[in-house]
Design brief:
0% strand
Length: 64
């Protein structure tokens, strides 16, 4: 699977994004396309959450 690529935005679109970042106090990242999230069973989700705790990372499951 390929990771999503940053979106190509115009200067005015970038200005809008930066303005919203400031208003919300967040960092926004624009991607071209993001694959669909995978619907997980409770068991699969538990395994992923356990691995997140072990690695100190955030894992996201996408459809392959």
């Amino acid at each position: 699977m390929e990771c999503p690529k940053p979106a190509k935005v115009s200067g005015s679109q970038l200005d809008e994004i930066k303005s919203l970042e400031e208003k919300l106090g967040v960092v926004l990242v624009a991607y071209d396309r993001v694959p669909s999230y995978k619907k997980l069973s409770a068991d699969s989700l538990s395994k992923i959450q356990s691995l997140e705790k072990d690695t100190g990372s955030v894992l996201v499951a996408y459809e392959s």
